Structures are given as C-alpha cells and as structure tokens.
Amino acid sequence: MSNREVVVLSVGGVRFVTRASTLQHFPESRLARMLNDDDREFKLVNGEFFVDRDGTLFSYIMDFLRTLQVSLPTDFSDYQRLQREAEFYGLYPLADLLSQEHLLKPRLEILEVRFSLQEMQAFFRIFGSCSTTVETLAEQITVFTGQQSGQSWNSPFPSQKPLVPLPLERPSHHDLVFQCGTDYSAGDQFVARYVSIKPDNRKLINGANVLGLLLGTLLKDGFRLISTRTVSNEEKVECYSFERMKRPAGLTV
Questions:
Q1: 172, 188, 223, 251: which has the highest count of C-beta atoms within 10 A?
Q2: For residue 42, what are the domain limits?
Q3: 209-245: per-residue pLDDT in tens?
C-alpha cells in the first residue's frame, strides 16, 4: 500500500482524496502508518481507507498536512475537539499548537474616528489599536492646501492654482490627525484644505463629505460601526467607534 501515489479516505462518511506523500509528512503519525496497513483503526474497504472520526474536523487536519500551517476560520471555536483529533492521528506538533488557543484566535481590532466641526473647518483624529491599519490609512489620505481668493466652504472645485500636498500629523504610531475646510489668512484670501482618500480621486473640502467618505472606506475595509457618541457638546466632537476581527497569520510548524 505504501506505493500508492493517490489515497482515498472516508472519514465519518466524508471523502478525501490526497497524495500519499502528504500523509507521510509526519512519518510517526497514524496516517503515515495507515499506508502500511499498520493500524487497525483504519479499515480498507473497496480501495478506500475508512475511519470512524469527525469528517468536518478532518478537513482542517488535511489543510495542515498540505500547508504545514495552522490557519482556521475567524468563527472557529472547536479548539479542544480539533486538538483531540490531532492527538488521535498522532499529529502532536499540531496538537501542541492547538493547546495554545491564544495564538490562533482572531483578535479584535478597534478603530476610533473623532470629528469636530468649527465654523468653516473640520478636524479629524483617527486612533487605531493596530498601527499597521493606521499606517495604511495614512497612505490613503492626502491633504492638499493652497491660498484661494474669495472662495468659501461650499466651493465645489478648487481654483486653477496648484495645490500643495501636506504631510499628515502623526502624534504616535496609533493615530493620525488632519483637517479640511477654509480659514481666513489676509484680506479676501482663504487658506483652503482639500482631502482625498484613495481609491476615490475627488478632492473634498466639506467636512461632512470627507467624514462620509472616510466612514464608507472603513466599512468597505471590513470594519463594523459599533457606536456613535458625542464626546464634547461644547466643541461639537463626535466619536465613531469601529471594530474588526483580525485573523492571526497562519502558524507554521
């Protein structure tokens, strides 16, 4: 039987087809010994190996044998049962990893957007528990500035004068700050700040429009809005809280 290149297993009635070399990744396991008719738990019936175990959980066993990584769905919860199955098949490296659930469970990622509207300007502060997400947002968001003549908050388009990109404020690795809108500088001159958020190509000056685009971008990126509250009535600061389940990287044996 050890000469077989393709092996068919029926695990609890669920059929799996794989290479013999895949089952032999761990030579001391029962699956490797099965190929030599060296385990009574596995019955050879019509050319297929049958074992009376959980077929659904065995799909994760097969994924581990094929990739040598543990990568489970975000909603997976049967760590103890899967560990028991790994021990049954003699896959002790997998069983050891499954005993450390905290390494495999998805982590909750929190992100908070604070928005303040003051006269003709809007102020934004984004805080995220994952610095990588904040870094990605900093690359997506660009603020453009320029002096404009006789323009106001509701000007739909910037003037023909070239706009200069501004670096975002980064108080820490976990947050970023920016603003949009217009402010008087001298006479009838305005300092105007427009915000662009990739992949959208528009340059927006209205704070409400920028807020809508930012929240929409986060929702498309897999975040879920969990609460909206007013932090300060006097300063009109609104806070939007988001969460996302972040799947850990697959652990390699």
A1: 223
A2: 6-104
A3: 999 999 999 999 999 999 999 987 677 899 999 998 7
Phi, psi torsion values for 224, nearest 5 degrees? -125, 130
Q: Which helix (H) or strand (E) holds 10?
A: strand 6-11
Question: What is the helix (H) or strand (E) element at residue 11, kind and residue range?
Answer: strand 6-11
On whether residue 1 sits in a domain, the answer given is no
CA–CA separation, 4 and 34 (whole Å): 12
CA distances from 90 to 12, 63, 83 (A): 18, 16, 10
CATH number at residue 21: 3.30.710.10
User: Taking the model in full, what pTM does it have?
Assistant: 0.62
Indicate the number of domains in the chain. Answer: 2
How far is Cα 52 from Cα 65, in angstroms, rounded to an integer?
19
238: burial class by Cβ within 10 Å (0-12, 13-18, 19+)?
A: middle
